[in-house]
Every structure is written in C-alpha cells, then in structure tokens.
Write a structure and sequence with these properties.
Layout (H helix, E strand, L loop, with lengths): L2 E3 L5 E3 L3 E2 L8 H11 L3 E3 L7 H13 L9 E6 L6 H15 L4 E6 L26 H13 L3 E7 L3 H8 L8 E5 L7 H9 L3 E5 L22 H10 L3 H11 L3 E2 L6 H9 L7 H8 L22 H4 L4
Parallel strand pairs: 3-4, 4-5, 5-6, 6-7, 7-8, 8-9, 9-10
Antiparallel strand pairs: 1-2
This protein binds adenosine-2'-5'-diphosphate (A2P).
C-alpha cells in the first residue's frame, strides 16, 4: 500500500473506504469487511448520516483484534450548518461520539458554504445561507483550535477551488493539509493538483468511480466512467477491472482515493487495486481520454435565493 505523508511525517494510506451513500444496515458490515480486507483508511462525514453505524463497525473490528485504533486513519467532515466559530467544537465532538473515537486523524470543512444552524439540506428553506455570520476565516480559525486541542490530528478542506484556498492562504496560522475533491479521468483537475502540490496540500479523490449510485433523472445522460471503452481496454490488458484501473490512476498520481462500496466482493476487489501498477503509456491514454465531466456539480447549493454560484465553487465554470 502506498502512503502519502503530511508535513510532520504522519502518513495516510492512499486507499480508503468511502461511506457516502452507504446505506444504514449495510455500512457496519462494510467497515468490518474493509478492515478485514486490509483497509486502514475510512472516509466519513456528518452529512452521510451513518457515522454511528460506521463507529459500530470500527468497534467490532477493534474488539475482534483485527486492528488497533492507532493503525486506522479516520477522516470526517464539518457540515455546512456548523461553520460559526462556536459551533465547530460541538460538531466535532458529536462526530467523535458517533464514531466512538476520542480523536480524528483528519477533519475537513466539507464545503466552502455556510448554512444557518439547524438547516441540513439547502432545499429545506429559502433563507438557509448565513455566510456573513460565518466567514471562512472564522471557521478555519476554529478548525485550527481543534488541531491544537488534539481532537483532530490534521485539518483540511473539501470542495475548495484555488480561489477559496487562496482565501485561507492569506490568513495566518496552519494551512489546510488536505483538499478532498471530485477527481477521476473525466475530471483530472491538473491545475488544482499542481496548485495543491506546490503548497504541500495533499489531495483525496472522491467519486473515483463516477458515483454511479447518485444518478438522478437530471444526470441520466451523464457519461459513464465504468463503461468507458478506453478504460476497459487498459483494464483488459492488466487482467483488472475498470474500477481497479480508476483507483490505481489516483494512487499513481500520489492522490488518496476513497471508492465507496458496501459489497464485500467489490470492497476486496477495490483494495487489490493498490497493487495495480499502471504504465506511463496507460497514464497517457487516460490523460487523453477526452471526456470532461463533473458528477457532483454543487448545483444543489446555487440558484435564485443563493448568494453562491457555480463560479464561486469551481475553477472551471
Ligand atoms: P456498491 O456499494 O454496491 O459496490 P464512487 O466511489 O465513485 O461514489 O462509486 C460508488 C459506487 O460504485 C457504488 O454504487 C458502488 O456500489 C459502486 N462500486 C464500487 N466499487 C465498484 C467496482 N469495483 N466496480 C463497479 N462498481 C463499483
């Protein structure tokens, strides 16, 4: 397994288990199976509404002797409705309680967007935004305090473009150590990758398989990563699956990757992708694939009543 290093020398396994859209009743087992298969990195978030069950899986694995807490790397994310400085610690403590842990390895600001407290999803209210009361600078200051308190060993962000990262770079103190963004061969984000690498910000790729389980009608005609003929050809050459090639692609770029699965066979298949070595010519073919597509476009946060627009969120809009 490849590991990526933080500046203090701590390491994160390049391959982790994603838990977004992992159903209740399934994710506990998925976590146990993943740890048994060798995963040591688990990616969680408050908004996935399953952290308690993920925590039960962790507890089962630790009690059975499969793993020790200190051998696991657990990430979680601050939801948009807890961005005010005094909300960050209670939010983190709530996540720790659900996960049954006394510290996180990594805590991320999930989106550069602030909701009013109590609002879970943007669609619930017309006036859900409160960004004036919770500027990123205040949220980021509180995140740094979480690190100083030892509640999170590392801190970072998710869904931040270069402008948003620049906003944090202008502040004193600790810079984000990780940026978790959508990334796969349809969205390689070379500029953002170069930006982050030049500033020692690690990257985690979410939706590495193209998030095939989040297709609403609106996305029915989206291109499908897992059905891409060029990627299939590369997979066939290696006797691997398309999913494994997609996972190996991130690892080859020194980017952490968190495929979600609650299926035991696919959890194990995905883990084996860490051993798949793609050649320079495979990587070149993947770079030339010629399809550009963002599966998680953030449009649920923009619209008539929103002070945010897609241009705020992404560098390429
Ligand atoms: P399942 O949980 O039934 O395995 P992403 O990580 O891009 O969001 O993709 C997750 C989706 O891809 C889930 O629907 C998951 O279904 C499915 N999936 C996970 N691993 C594989 C794989 N190796 N091949 C095909 N589909 C996969």
């Amino acid at each position: 397994m490849k590991y990526l290093s933080f500046q203090n020398g701590d390491q994160i396994p390049a391959l982790g288990l994603g838990t977004w859209k992992s159903e209740p009743g399934q994710v506990r087992k998925a976590v146990v199976w993943a740890i048994e298969a060798g995963y040591r990195h688990l990616d969680c978030a408050k908004i996935y509404q399953n952290e308690k069950e993920v925590g039960e899986g962790i507890e089962i694995a630790i009690r059975s002797g499969s793993v020790k807490r200190e051998d696991l790397f657990v990430t979680s994310k601050l939801w948009n409705n807890a961005h005010k400085a005094d909300q960050v610690k209670p939010a983190l403590e709530n996540t720790l309680k659900d996960l049954g842990l006394d510290y996180l390895d990594l805590y991320l600001v999930h989106w550069p967007l602030a909701f009013k407290s109590g609002v879970t999803f943007a669609q619930e209210r017309e006036d859900f935004y409160t960004y004036e009361e919770a500027p990123l600078s205040a949220t980021w200051q509180a995140m740094q305090e979480m690190k100083e308190l030892g509640l999170a060993r590392h801190i970072g962000v998710s869904n931040f473009n270069q402008n948003k990262l620049n906003e944090l770079a202008s502040l004193p103190g600790q810079q984000p150590e990780m940026n978790q963004v959508e990334m796969h061969p349809f969205l390689p984000q070379a500029n953002l990758v170069n930006y982050c690498k030049s500033r020692a910000i690690l990257i985690t790729a979410y939706s590495p398989l193209g998030s095939p389980d989040s297709r609403s009608e609106k996305h029915a005609n989206d291109p499908k990563l897992l059905d891409n003929e060029k990627i299939k050809e590369i997979a066939d050459r290696h006797g691997a699956s398309v999913g494994q090639v997609l996972i190996a692609w991130s690892i080859a770029r020194d980017i952490a990757v968190i495929p979600k699965s609650t299926n035991r066979g696919r959890i194990e298949e995905n883990f084996k992708a860490a051993e798949l070595q793609l050649s320079e010519s495979d990587l070149q073919e993947l770079a030339n694939i010629g399809v550009n597509h963002r599966f998680v476009d953030g449009s649920f946060f923009t619209g008539e009543n929103s002070p945010y627009n897609l241009h705020d969120l992404w560098d390429d809009h």
